[in-house]
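pinging the channel bc i need a second pair of eyes. not urgent but kinda urgent?? the chain im working w is below, pasted from the shared doc
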Amino acid sequence: MEPLSDAAKVLKSNGVRVTPARVVLLEALHSRRGPFTAQELHANLLARSVDLVTVYRFLALVVKTGLAREIVGSDGVA
């Protein structure tokens, strides 16, 4: 994935408004392997300009648009 341009294209093609925070989050999401929590994603962001609430909202958005899946563990954490 070409960092900014491909992330922006993926967001736009799914009807999602492109913002700098969403591009950063999509790139972070793309680089992850295996399941993770919103808190883990937030903790690993290099650009600390994205707050935890934005991470939760973004994850809900990408699940809603089909770009990601939500998995709920036996402990109830998604």
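so The chain has a mean pLDDT of 83. and Residues 35 and 55 are 15 Å apart (CA to CA). — does that match what u expected or am i reading it wrong
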